[in-house]
Amino acid sequence: MNSPEGAPLALTWHGHATTLIELDGIRLLTDPVMGARVGPLVRVAPAVAADAAEAIDAVLLSHLHADHADAASLRSVGRETLVIAPPGAEAWLHGAGLANVMELGPGERTHLGAVKVTATPAVHEGRRWRYGTRAQSIGFLAAGSLSCYFAGDTDLFDEMSEIGPVDAALLPVSGWGPTLGPGHLDPERAATAAQRVSPRVAVPIHWGTLGLPLARLRPSEPSAPAEDFAALLARRTPGIEVRILAPGERTEIAAVRSGATRAEGAS
Hints:
The protein is α/β, with parallel strands linked by helices. It has helices at 71-77, 90-95, 187-197, 224-236, 262-265, and strands at residues 9-15, 18-23, 26-30, 37-38, 41-43, 58-60, 82-85, 101-103, 109-112, 115-121, 138-143, 147-150, 166-172, 199-205, 210-211, 241-242, 249-253.
């Protein structure tokens, strides 16, 4: 059942870039990857709950890379569920069996109930494979009584400062391999992104969920990127609260009381 309108913003991180955003009665699911593996990658975090994809009003799809756009996971959310995706993605999504697709380019927006969803820029190569479908990469800003920024996959860009301030930001801090290619944020760059976006609460995502099949090729401390991100922000910008969620963990963000300071309003 959808949360009643006016309830606190709630975030449930299911791993990697998959997060349920509950805002003003609307349930948004970002980049759903719900299964035990994606191509050669295996899920190294606990399995996604069976009810994680229930009653979703729309999927926010940042780009077509396989660890963000998984056809089986998208179909499990619902073939008729609205998928809001970047320009160039519609044909691939229809081919994957998704019937209800809306493309949004950076700066374009749509409304779902009381929530306005705006596509934001992202600096990330969005082609499905090297010679596959070419589509853009985007992030999303969901704004109603509170606001949440989902960065998708991106590098830093100047316009980040124009997105905030927001109540919450979902920021990638790592990946699935031993190194990060261009177009990604590591803990250091993610901390800079948080400073630019200026959220009350920052939630690190895109870490500790997917890995290579051989255990020796996986990081020995999968939570280190999230912890490093939190430590950097604590030193640089202590007014931004960092919440590190375990896969499947839910957190609520209350509205700021009238007259409350930024630090007092983050809860």
